[in-house]
Protein 1
Amino acid sequence: MFDSLRHTAAHDGYGVKMDSISRRKFLKIGGTSLALTAAAGPLGKAAAGSSRENVRGVQKIPTFCDLCFWKCGAIAYVEDGKLWKVEGNPLDPLSQGRLCPRGSGGVGAHFDPDRLKYPLMRKSLRGKEEWVQVTWDEALTFIADKMNKIKAEHGPEAMALFSHGIGGNFLKHLFKAYGSANIGAPSFAQCRGPRDVGFRLTFGEDVASPERTDIRNARCLVLIGSHLGENMHNTQVQEFSEAVANGASLIVVDPRVSVAAGKAKYYLPIKPGTDMALLLAWMNLLVSEKLYNQAYVDRYGFGFEQFAAEIQPYTPEWAYPETGIEPELIRATAREMARYLPATLIHPGRHATWYGDDTQRSRAIALLNALMGNWGVKGGFYYPVSMEVPAYPYPAYPHSDRPKVDNPDNRYPFAHEVNTNGIRKATISGVPYPVKGWFVNATNLIHALPDEQETIRAIQNLDLLVVIDVIPAEIAGWADVVLPESVYLERFDDLNVEWFREPFVALRQPVVAAPHDQKPNWWIAKKLAEKLGLGHYFPWKDVEEYLAYRLNTAGLDYGRLKREGIIRGEKQPVYFAEGVPDVFPTPSGKIEFYSLQLAQAGFDPVPKYTQPAPPPDGYFRLLFGRAPVHSFSRTQSNRVLMDMLDENEVWINQDIATRWGLKSGDYIRLKNQDGVISNRIKVKATERIRTDCVYIIHGFGHNARQLTYAYQKGASDAQLITRYKTDPIMGGTAMNVNFVTFELEA
Amino acid sequence: MLTEAKMIELTTTRHNELIDPFLQVWGWEIPVYLFLGGLVAGMMIIAGYFFIKGRDEGHQCICYQIPLLGMALLSLGMFALFLDLEHKAYVWRVYTTFEIKSPMSWGSWILLLVYPALLVNFLLHVPAWIGDRLPFLKHGSQKIQSINNIKRHVGKVNLVLGIMLGTYTGILLSALGARPLWNSAILGILFLVSGLSTASALVHMIARERSESEMLARADNLFLTVELFIIALFFIGLLSSTEVQISSAMLLLTGPYAAVFWVFVILMGIVIPLLIQNLSVSHRIQHTAVAPIMVILGGFILRFVLVQAGQYSHYLNAHFIK
Amino acid sequence: MARFAMVIDTKKCVGCMDCVVACKTENRVPEGFNRDWITTEARGKFPSVQMEIRSERCNHCDNPPCVHCCPTGASHVHTLGGVVLVHHDLCIGCKACLASCPYDARFIHPEGYADKCTFCIHRVEKGMDPACVSVCPTHCMYFGDLEDPHSPVSRLLMARRYHAIAPEAGTDPQIYYLI
């Protein structure tokens, strides 16, 4: 999750010291709520589960979804004690009471027959998927012993945590208490990192998640490398559809006729890897024809003249041979954007790690938005707001002399989150210091990180690999210890104090009991902390005490939150016009059209274009994306969602397919430039894609044998991503740099 | 010809068993039933004709062999029908109502009347080997024969029920307008004539009286000729209709079912036996079982290929590519 | 007398399959079977491709051949709204209704009877919309009574251009796609 300065204090509970007297006082004050939680039982799980199981009729329990990272408010229906369905919580500003297809299929996570059930310990070699079942005590004792050993031999910083999602909050807290700040998620270096850095360098702030894009009010929406509609982040798609219905002018740039492209007023079938050229040409035209938002730029821009001079060569005629987009179309679309400014939004996308110059490309998008004058303006980017819910007053974390391990010598000076690839590299090389233990929670690193062989090499250097997850995905196969987590419908998690158009706080609570011996992550973290002698960092008896404390301190009623799932706050200003201060936390205090800090660090102060390498003969660039019914590689065991889509297909241009003698429904294998051959994958011969690339949905081609239903259905793009380019500015791993050819079946 | 490669990609996420990628709800059970139903219908018409024309004098009259064989064949057909049902325990529900718009409802009740008709026909002349074992049948037989003009009545009833049975099997398919191949009113007549032709072939083979056998062979030739004509009309109707009908007709004429249709239905089921039987009724060659067996097999394959190809024919633009 | 119908705005629909998932969980549709589905039509040559995405299901036709051909009366028109339903305990599983539907909207449930979209009549009778309509995150689906001129469906059909699927099949389908 993003970690910008403003939000740290609210989320991470740094450094509030409590001596024993004030702690006792606290316990007394919290007496009533404690009594209630005591009645509920120390674990919460057993009581919640059994009380629900015996009730006849339909119960509706609010919670928030965990199928992706949007955290939409949901209401789960339990009929006669059995989980029936999940719908949206009408109180939820994110979902407006309507979940996306993954959330609607959430029951499949609870009923998944392949889900992890008991703690497991590796019986033989890593990766052989042979385990022996153990008790929680055995597993946690083993882990604590190893962690203590690592701490003694190498220092606590030698433990790293990969955790994605709100479910990891208690584990992150544990790690910091243990003494390691080497905590990262693939979402930065493998996903939206370049985007957030590019925007920080321009506006001083991240795009964030949920994206602060005011799509609903946009009168012109430009999607360049965004496939909203197939990418199913709920609020984004709802607003996209609203904008389209309101007649917003839609411009879509994509090598593939995406769903969004099918609705576009202008569709630009761009050559993969040349988006930067198009962005520069657009900006060139807007500046040369003086169509940009001059008042806004004059008021808020820094270095505009230098910027204008730098982009002068990038005419539409210059961009045409690079991108394949005709100059007149480039002009028409730029003028269309100018027509509707400031309510013209060029969507910054989300997964931005493509070609290695991604920070600069995202900066170009930021600059294009700046030319529209839409930052802080309706129809562009708003300022998200949140409720004030103080963090829990924990003891201070131990101080470390060593820097984080992922960015030695600050090689990537503008990376503001931990780089997972950096942790991996350090684990292999031992530089700047050894990393000997990993915890991996809610992320399947084998599918998330590029070059899986590198991940495996890193894993083999570890003394300890612990995987805490809900399904036995590939990463679990490499673990020394696998801890089964209960799914979101079965557990409490940390409060979601979201940053959005309006402030609210949401609760995740158990709806049904976990069917086997799965435990919630807060329990795992707390128990492990106790074994590590860090129990004082988890002073609350159970998680409800923690939740109630935080809410009470914020003046909110925990009982009400349990009943309604969401408590909304007062509306706050989100635009400059509504009173948000129009200051930019950049070195110049303004929007940096020309970035001195980039120049000083040796990077281009204004983005430049790098021509992508062409595919070798007979090869096609491998592009990948999302399906609205799946989340990464984590939902292919969910039977409800697999009933929607149980394998991915490779999109091949119809003419190319004909030339190869292929038709839709045939099965082939993909072979990449390094000779890696994928699993069998079905062909989709279509007019909806260029001839120089192919496209598949990410997350399939599982080879974890315990995922019995997902096993070998479709092919894995991750497996074929053996090469990546590292973004020099923030260390992101660009993955659209692999090429594949077709291996036909005999 | 007209409908290939229209540059339209039509994909669906639906994956229902028996429905996708194309309709496959009826396998061999329904064609078997339609064939046997048509066969028995033809046999009833033949028997009825014999009775009405008063040609039933000899004990060897085919009209007395037909009912027992007919009941056996019909029971086989209805058993096939029962096997096709997916909710077998509820089969009796067809007899709790009469749905006037449903050919299947009509058929259920027609079948209910056909059995007694065949039974009465049977009782007109119970063979000794049965009558000796089951004397109550001999008794019933005597009772029935004492009714005035009973044979005429039995003949008329058989004729009418036979026509209804034979025709309804075709209407069963033609009422399903969603399958363009079946959406032709001529199917009723086609199945009737085909039933008559297969029945004539069968009865010609088993008839003991030489004269009857000859007559039936001639009748079969007539029915085969008419059948060819009706098949031609069937295709003319489809080919002069809309795009979906044309492409459904092409399934049989030039498409995936063409080989079976031309070789087994037309050539070996009608044209060659017609030629052979023409030669045999003009006494240039001996009567053998070859032609009748070809006719009978051809009749079955006609039903089979129509049921399969019909399910493949489709109203919407193209078959989905998933 | 009500005549229920659905109006679906193809401009907004992104084909996300939320309607399919919601139907599946609401109605406990067995794994492997679909009461509703997404159809995508793409016409033309790259890059000039026109697309239409539709959420499809039983059209609850006003002239339903599946009701006419049923020998037991299992397939029938409900007293309310013209909704076409199946009495499970009258169905013999003859599959004539499956063959009679030009939209292939029916299937045989693992328990043996013919099954399909029911317009979530159990929700409609309580004043709610069908599950698919309620869940759609793009708000592209509308349900209501065509005999009420003020219902959302009636208003939309007056204001927007629309088409039904294969109207030439003659069954008078009651799902309309806004274009």
Note: Strands of chain B lie at 8-12.
Protein 2
Amino acid sequence: MPDTVTVRVNGRAVTVPAGATVAVAILAAGAISRFSVTGHPRAPFCGMGTCFECRSEINGQPHRRGCQILCEPGMNIQSDG
Amino acid sequence: MDSSTHSHFDVVVVGAGPAGIAAAVTASDCGATVGLIDDNPTAGGQIWRGEAHKTERSAATPWFERLVRSSVKKIHGARAFYVDDGMLAAEIADGTRTIAYRELILATGARELFLPFPGWTLPNVFGAGGLQALMKSGLPVAGKRILIAGTGPLLLAVAAYARKCGADVLGICEQTTMRKMMRFAAGAAAIPSKVADTIRLAWALRGIPHWTNSWPLAALGNERVERVRIVRDGEGHEIKCDYLACGFHLIPNVELARLAGCQIEDGFVEVDAWQQTSVPRIYCVGEPTSIGGVEMAVVEGRIAGCAAAGHREKARPLLRAREKYARFARELKDAFALRHELKAIAEPDTLLCRCEDVPLERARAFGSWRAAKLQTRCGMGPCQGRVCGSAAEFLFGWGTDSVRPPVFPVECASLASITSMGSSTGSSTGELI
Amino acid sequence: MSIQTEVAIVGAGIVGAACAFELAKARVPVAVIDRGFVGGGATAAGMGHIVVMDDSTAQFALTRYSQTLWDELESEAPATVEFDRCGTIWVAADEEEMAAVRRKSAYYNERGVRTEILDANALREAEPNLRDGLAGGLFVPGDSVLYAPCAAEFLLREARKRGAEIYLGQPGVAIGQGTVSVADGTTFVAKYVVNATGHDAPRLTPGINVKSRKGHLVITDRYPRMIRHQLVELGYLKSAHSIKTDSVAFNVQPRKTGQVLIGSSRQYDVAGTDVDAQILSAMLARAFRYIPSLASASSIRTWAGFRAATPDKLPLIGPWTEDPSVILAAGHEGLGITTSLATGRLVTDQILGRTPAISIEPYLPSRQMSGAHA
């Protein structure tokens, strides 16, 4: 099994350790996950699926909690920025 | 997309952390058919996150080995969102699973308490357990300057792990007093299994500044946190950092228990000696019954596993062990009680609700959680008050609102599928157009 | 302790708030009393839809009048009220319902309410997420939506500015003969007592025919532009008419946040605001039949509440026959938000002896006693 996984975060290729979650990929890419309802940048926060800050669009599906989803090769992650 | 699968077990365990794993394995060993469901991709919950795949042995290892060897049906990536009368509904990647149980064991764990302070919503401010979870999920922290703050033994564990991963841990700001901290350490030393842990931890943390009477005042930075202002023994300090990991101990996840109608006392699920709740056939183990640490969670899981499988007599020897850990739980609570100064670190325009961007002062003006929620939308976002509501409880002494399905956001289709479950609550349905 | 006032209003929901608003505007000393907080009952539980209805002449008159009052208030309402004139589209699934569309359109047009008949193509253009195969609909551009709890709060704030006193957290024990007695022993002494307690009204005014009608709602996460108007199936009218059976109907609302509010359901003789899985499921299934993409939308929360229903579907507005010092302002069923302002105006007219802009006859509580119908 390979040690790393490569996904796309906002169009850019990002390589993370195998078993890493989408939230990790977003952070590793230096991206934010979303803009808050009044326009402030937010990134993963609680790491365990309760705060909902890590939401992004994964393979076309919006509002997915990245901290509980494993990165898969070729996954397309679109966050707010 | 609307695929629904049904299954049934003698015992269903919700949550694959230490308590849930112990309960599932024990019940299975007693002869029951067991389903263990968890919303994460792998088992372990928070404190045993990633333990299943580690090479070095730990307290978790034998349990994972037993889990693998057992006939427990492990259902990962399944988010339980509804329970009613012998049926549990969980959302999975491509639909819903309805799972029938004879006995249900809730092992839903705890989450961190987050208190608002200026800048707490900046990127790279994490929960303490939050950073831990992310590191264990692969977040690279080598070379990052990390400040850890809040309260509780978790801060130490996070600091040790971060350091192990190559981070530059700048310090730990613990809000409790030095005296309470020492008293707690002495109490922990009375538990044999904890002594070794404590020594290991102390060694792992050598050289990392540990300050008591210390808490964050503000996280500052442009697009992300760049420095943190803290107070230490009454004096202000500013510390440059890359990450701030801040959490104020744990609060129990009792939503599913509340939805199921379990009696809640003081925020925790009430259980009897066999870990049975006020609702027949429903048990609760681990942090939702009291914040007591991993050993207590495992003991409770074992007790409930025996009881749910119809073998209470096997659990008898465990009752005394639980009492020992219950003492530890009480000491934990005393040692890390939150000081009142923490109610004043937020400023009026500091956000209370992160989902709906509601400032503290706007919410506070309404005098009760429900009124504040309706008028300002705080708590109406996806987290349904798990962050802001818990903070408001501490800050203002407000109670919480009732729990309605879904316990977690799920697709409308999943919500619609809960009718094909067991007995229905409520009235006869007449003509449904 | 005794508190003197001119009018004591029991109930700080949208109707009580509207009464306080109008009375205070007319410089009448008012005390508003509520067992909880502002807008905590049906006001919080329902859809804030402001809609003209053509069920009956009296219902049209009341909804139309009240809608114009809301339109007048629009510019003063703060952003929290989320007033949005998005309009309603009554959706027709088949030719039979299109015939109803045409009748409805004629009815409204004759009375000066602007409408636009949409054929299947126009409907699709107006609402791309509605499923294919629908016959068309009726667009009523003058209808609006708002966020009711904040609207109630706004009305009370305005009333307070003009001297109204608000007493929250006061369970009302009894009313009558010009007094309101609350649990802590305080007595409010007034010339009139307005009963604006919604489905609870019979508890304070025994004998009135107001029944509880439970409704469920679901709110989704943010999906801006999934729908643009309040969408209601014409079958809704069948549901609202049914007085004996449980029913669901397609009725969805776009909120300013981009969230979608999904309704609606009606049940009689059910106590408790527990969410009923069967009804919820039926309601959602119905919604999916109109908007298939709703099935994969993330639902955040569900809840239930109670409308106050009367046999002739008109509210009770006016003095109670047994004790004319009690003015009823309850029984608005699913039109409480819409008709709250008109209710407030009519109650004020009654109390001050002013000539109302519309006839109050159809809503007088006396009709329940004498058996007279609207």
Note: Residues 4-78 of chain A form a domain with the Ubiquitin-like (UB roll) fold (CATH 3.10.20.30).
